[in-house]
Amino acid sequence: MAAQFGDDAHPVNLALTSHVLALRDLLMRLALSAKVEDAETFTDTLMLWSGAARVFDADIDPRRFAQRLPTSVNRVVEGYVRHE
């Protein structure tokens, strides 16, 4: 969507940037509270995964994507969460 508004100062780009930063902050806080081993890398992984999902969303059947989402997220989480 941001590509449609070339100016970085365009209100849409500013809103998208704000949203992405807020999402990253939320994921980081959740990762820290869950005692994720490498919270920063975990958060970056989720952000990259989220971005990839948005890029390919147009090419993926939404039902198929929704069915695979929980398993994919669980695999990412299992790779970082400490088991005590």
Strand/helix succession: HHH
What is the oligomeric state here? single chain
| Unreliable runs | none
Terminal Cα separation, in Å?
42 Å
Class derived from helix and strand content: mainly alpha
Strand content: under 5%
Count up the domains.
Answer: 1
In DSSP terms (H or I, runs of 4 or more residues), the helix count works out at 3
Largest sheet: none
Tell me, what's the shape? flat
Count of DSSP E strands?
Answer: 0
Q: Rounded to an integer, what's the Rg over CA atoms?
A: 15 Å
Helix content: 55-70%
Mean pLDDT comes to 80
Give the secondary structure arrangement, pairings included:
Elements: H1 11-33, H2 39-56, H3 62-78
Helix pairs in contact: 1-2
Structure description:
- With 84 residues, this protein is mostly helical.
- The chain has one domain (2-78).
- Helix content is 69%, strand content 0%.
- The longest helix is centred in the first third of the chain and has 23 residues, at 11-33.
- The protein is flat.
- The N and C termini lie far apart (42 Å).
- 6% of the residues are buried.
- The model has no long low-confidence stretch (mean pLDDT 80).
